[in-house]
Amino acid sequence: MATKLEIAQDWLPRYTGMPLDAFGDYVLLTNFRSYVQKFSAKFGCDLYGMDRPMQATTNDAGLTIINFGIGSPNAATVMDLLTAYHPKAVLFLGKCGGLKKSAEIGNFILPIAAIRGDGTSDDYLPRLVPALPSFKLHKFVSEKLVDRQLDYRTGVVYTTNRRVWEHDEDFKTRLQGCTPIAIDMESATLFVVGHKNQIARGALLLVSDLPMTHDGIKTQESDAQVSHDWSDVHLDIGIESLSDIEDKGETIKHFQY
Q1: Which of 29, 109, 120, 185 has its CA 20 to 30 A from that of 206?
Q2: Which residues contact 98 (CB under 8 A, 6 or more apart)?
Q3: DSSP character for 49?
């Protein structure tokens, strides 16, 4: 295997257990095995990769969902592996911590950009290159949110490769100085690697905790409650968005900037 394409075409099935020809033109990415299982049950499609690092399935309409795990290195890996066939659009369904006083559990966020605190994206493009989603994809997702009369916010999110930071007051002070609306571990990486690989990409984030306050830090119990209350609608919006964009959305083109 001498080229990146050859590697990706070999490794995508190896990581997911799903044959290369089973992947669809539109892809939902997530951190949650439960989302893939719910998708499989909803459409009655075969579930692959329960014994692999990633789980995946594709419905009859050609929509694929992949659980790639947690964190920026895994986000970069899956965006590299998707160059095996270059899907038309990729939408990340992830959770984030709300950083503004007005943030509430269950808010949806469509990031207009992400601050590159992840480190992983530095291996792909210089730090001066902004981490941006594909505008037309986010525009269409926003229409789906409005159709459901769901409140959503836009703003800049901060992506970090550090999972346990809620106790660190110095980090929190630096974080506030960047003025992001939320914090996660994947968005900037997905945006930068997607740009590098010329894949249209976006993110619909669900506020699952309010980590700047001690009583807002995520716990096992609080996270389970968020999943119970919001995971179905989160997944449904993603499915509706990528299922309809081919027929109803504007054409998404990738331009280098």
Answers
A1: 120
A2: 104, 105, 107, 181, 182, 207, 209, 210
A3: -
The answer to whether 206 and 234 have CB atoms below 8 angstroms apart is: yes
Q: Check: pTM over 0.85? Answer yes or no.
A: yes
* Cα distance between residue 14 and residue 138, in whole Å: 31
Structure tokens, 14: 């190896």
Of 143, 256, 254, 137, nearest to 203 by C-alpha is 137
d(CA 154, CA 177): 18
Phi then psi for 9, rounded to 5 degrees?
Answer: -70, -30
Q: For 219-235, b where at least 16 C-beta lie within 10 A, e where not — what string?
A: eeebeeebbeebbeebb
Instruction: Point out which residues pair with 47 in neighbouring strands.
Output: none
pLDDT below 50 — which residues of the chain?
Answer: none
- Measured from the Cβ of residue 150, the count of other Cβ atoms closer than 10 Å reads 13
Q: Are 186 and 117 in contact (CB under 8 A)?
A: no
Closest CA to 133 of 91, 185, 175: 91
Q: What is the pLDDT of residues 216-257, one digit of tens each?
A: 899 999 888 989 999 999 999 999 999 988 777 666 655 555
Residue identified by tokens 């795990």 is 69
Distance in angstroms between the alpha carbons of the first and the last residue of the chain: 31
In angstroms, the CA 80 to CA 32 distance is 20
Q: Residue 113 in 3-state DSSP?
A: strand
What pLDDT was estimated at residue 246? 77
Tell me the domains of the chain and their CATH numbers. Answer: 4-243 (3.40.50.1580)
